[in-house]
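Entry 14. Structure prediction run on the chain below.
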Amino acid sequence: MIPAAVLNEWYPVAMIAQLAAWPGRQTLLLGSEINVFRDAAGAVVVQGADGPLAVTLAYGHVWACPGVPAHPLFPIPEADQPGRRLVDCGVVRVKCSPLRAVENFLDIAHFPFVHTDVLGAEPHTEVGRYEVQIREDSDEVWATKVHFYQPQAAKSAAGGIVTEYMYRVAAPTASVLYKTCPNNADEWDVIAIFVQPLTEELCEVWPWMALFDDTTPQADLIQFQQMIFLQDRSILENQIPRLLPLDPGKEIPTQADLTSIAYRRWLKRKGLTYGAQMVAA
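Output returned:
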């Protein structure tokens, strides 16, 4: 039985730009088959076994709610900011818990070892102190004042810089990253992942970006982001256990894991446990 808290969330199920008429995109959501397509009038429909699902369109993607939406889809104000370039980066299928995919996105400590000479490099491996909080007003997890040396922080970066990050968990399967913008010191680049839970141990990850970059070819931006996530995939697919443990005693955290700890605590208290390993009674 899938908890109501899970059913009443919004999940990405397709890129708007790729939608066609029936049968459109046939896929899974929380273990159930769905079809995502445009009807005769051009409206987007997400059809489940028991009828159409609630739908909203945002950030280049189709979002569906299998239950009764508990709230509107989270805002990303930068999506409407003049001058930003919005980039849909396709999709990557990963044999892991959807919650594991989000947690990996929050982990900065692996940069020098998994994304060597791009997002990190030895000997710059230390994660300094940063701040993490669960913001009650927005019901989101935030990590701020994160700093890390990166040889190539973005496709447009000309050389290594100390990059500042803010991590925002806006939904159980969606996270937004704000990072130093190489092209505009007064703004943040925005990189997000929207995770579609196919099953508890299989997901599809839809990266999306809102950048200040008028020069890099679209294909190069997409390729760069896909390269980063494909480097993560082999790590994610070999994690044991496959489900994300919500019992803090199951894995040994370090200073660098403060965001992960807050994320797990937040999931547990909200009952958002699809893809999680619960504590035995």
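Residues 112-117, 153-157 have pLDDT under 50 and may be disordered.
Filed with the rest of this week's runs.
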